[in-house]
Design a protein that fits this description.
Blueprint lengths: L5 H13 L16 E4 L11 H15 L3 E2 L8 E17 L5 E15 L5 E15 L5 H28 L3
Parallel strand pairs: 1-2, 1-3
Antiparallel strand pairs: 3-4, 4-5
Helix pairs in contact: 2-3
């Protein structure tokens, strides 16, 4: 295989730079904390386990972007806490008045980043999203599995959105 001429590599670099592409490192958090603690999200809904799922996906979003997440708030420079403001399950497609073919789960999440003394550094209210899922008529176990999978996808998307909002402009 013939090596690329140096002008080709230079041209690729110029094109990438001119279109605004950049290699992103970890985004900077407000207050520039070195160690972050993500508290378990408060869950006032009847959907059990969603608080752990949301908390874990938030932790994964920070770890994936090079931040140090610590287990306890006492070792943290900042604490990210959250509360599920609402969770709705709706029917979005019907075969008849009694038979749904697809559902949608919608979540609204409020987040607060605080310093070790509890002073608010940053907050975001109303982070929201929804995810559609299939309803298997006559198979409640499959429908439940599909709904839980939709919640997992949605929690990952909300964690990415939260990370982006938290690190934008800092």
């Amino acid at each position: 295989m013939k090596p690329l001429p140096s002008y080709t590599i230079l041209l690729a670099g110029v094109v990438l730079a001119s279109c605004g592409y950049r290699f992103a490192g970890p985004g900077q958090l407000p207050g520039n904390p070195r160690h972050l603690h993500v508290a378990v999200v408060e869950n006032p809904t009847t959907e059990t386990g969603i608080e752990v799922l949301l908390s874990n996906t938030l932790i994964q979003a920070f770890l994936a972007n090079g931040h140090q997440v610590v287990a306890g708030p006492e070792a943290a420079d900042a604490v990210l806490s959250g509360r599920i403001a609402s969770l709705r399950i709706d029917s979005v497609s019907r075969e008849s008045a009694q038979i749904s073919l697809a559902g949608r789960v919608s979540i609204v999440l409020n987040l607060v980043l605080s310093d070790p003394e509890g002073n608010e550094i940053w907050s975001a209210e109303g982070l929201s999203g929804s995810q559609r899922y299939s309803i298997s008529t006559g198979n409640k176990l499959q429908t439940e599995a599909d709904r839980r999978h939709a919640i997992k996808i949605l929690s990952e998307r909300l964690a990415e959105t939260a990370y982006d909002r938290l690190t934008t402009g800092f």
